[in-house]
Amino acid sequence: RATQYTCMLLSYLIEHKAGKEKLVMKLKQLESSMSSGRKMFRLGNMVHALVAARRTRQLPDVVPRFCLTASHLTRALYFVCDTVLWLKSVGLQPDVDKPKWRNWATKCYYFSLLMNLARDWYEISWRMEQAVQEEKTKENSFWDKHSQELNSVKCDGLHSFLPLLFQILKRHPPLLLDLVKNLCDLSGPLDTLGIYRTNPGVIGFCGVLSSMVGILTLASPHLKLKQ
To answer: Where does the chain cross the membrane (predicted)?
Structure first.
């Protein structure tokens, strides 16, 4: 995935430079090959999404339970649609209506991302509310490190939404990384659905950043937001 989006970004950056036509063509061919290769593993991804949906149904909190289960189920539908598109691309199902299936796939992926972002926002809101309640608590005994940080925010006159949001995300890297990844992934479906038009350069950059976050959370599981 990282290779695919890196090729997209590089080809966009150099496509208008003289003498780079062959390189641009090679980058686009590599991008297409990476995309096709990834589609071959969609069946495994679909099974993984269904298993994850079954697991998140057991969550005690209703909001994360709904958001994550809906996200996994729609992601599984996205993988189904993407597999059909792959069958079309390799000639196994030549009669497939490609624009229709691509539109369905994009909508499923878009809804899945929205559910993930809703869950992220719920986590942020809950932690912000908790932080404000702790800040309002009057204690004459010694403060722990967490309360001291919140108190410093108040003393500096920075107790407002954005500074508090910054403090919450700073103290919870998994939540920050998950939010960044989901926001970056939105660039593709927003452009495809015509909601917010960008260009291959922006989509490529966001894809590379999202992929790097994914690789980081795989290499360091403690940075992955628990579901």
So the answer is: 201-219
Assess contact for 116 and 49: CB atoms under 8 A: no
- Domain residue ranges in the chain: 48-133+160-223
Percent of the chain with pLDDT strictly greater than 70:
90
Can you tell me whether residue 6 is helix, strand or coil?
helix
**What is the Cα–Cα distance from 139 to 136, expressed in whole angstroms?**
9
CB 182 within 8 A of CB 116: yes
Q: What does the pLDDT read at residue 97?
A: 87
Q: Indicate the SS3 state at residue 164.
A: helix
Give long-range contacts, CB 8 A cutoff, 24+ apart: 87-90. 89/36, 89/39, 90/36
Are the C-beta atoms of 84 and 96 separated by less than 8 Å? Answer: yes
141 torsion bin: left (phi>0), alpha (psi -120 to 50), beta (else): beta
| Rg from Cα positions in the chain | 21
Measure the CA–CA gap between 161 and 177, rounded to whole angstroms: 20
Give pLDDT, residue 147: 56
Q: What is the pLDDT of residues 145-164, one digit of tens each?
A: 555 555 554 444 445 778 88
